[in-house]
Fold this sequence. Notes:
The chain contains four helices and two strands; from the N terminus they run βααβαα. By secondary structure, the protein is mainly alpha-helical. It has one domain (2-67). Strands 1-2 form a two-stranded parallel sheet. The longest helix has 19 residues, at 20-38.
Amino acid sequence: xxxxxxxxxxxxxxxxxxxxxxxxxxxxxxxxxxxxxxxxxxxxxxxxxxxxxxxxxxxxxxxxxxxxx
Length: 69
């Protein structure tokens, strides 16, 4: 299965986790990420994702660290 995650998905683990909805979205994103690593899903990438993530002023850690690349 091909899957495309937008910038919000990649940055969700960096958001304030005090709200249940944010926690659940983070868990879902991490589960999807694990399935991508295991080969169950094929991640589709775009130039815009790269650009948006590089220009994110509020990120606390490197995007590539989050993705495990």
